[in-house]
Amino acid sequence: MNxxxxxxxxxLLFFRxxxxxxxxxxxxxxxxxxxxxxNAWFEELLATGKAVEGQPLEMETRVVSGAGGERxxxxxxPEAKEAVGGYxxxxxxxxxxxxxxxxxxxxxAYGMKIEIRPLTPHCHLGVxxxxxxxxxxxxx
Length: 140
Description:
Belongs to the YciI family. By secondary structure, this protein is an alpha+beta fold. It has helices at 28-47, 95-103, 134-138; strands spanning 4-16, 51-56, 62-65, 71-74, 84-94, 113-118. Strand 3 and strand 4 (71-74) form a beta hairpin.
């Protein structure tokens, strides 16, 4: 399977291990410097058209499972360290470019992990998938 092409392909970067406990040992100045570098990393991606969107996620979570959604469990959960704390959606040439972007994230130096996943228009179950129209996503 060729993961590189001349066209832009959608990828998600999922940020894990991003909770407050990860940054407790940093001084206020160090925390501020990290925020400045993190924002600069993201703003550069937006300016170059590589990032389409990005958003942190709340720690609170709800899991629905079982037939008919019979089980509902509220979190956060003990394994919250591995929970997704945020994401960035990229439009890049392929996995190698997405990996290089992830490797430049300043949060990696503080224990953050980044999972890189390609989006696919084809569900293995045959479920219909499609992107939202540009006008709809722009109005959000």
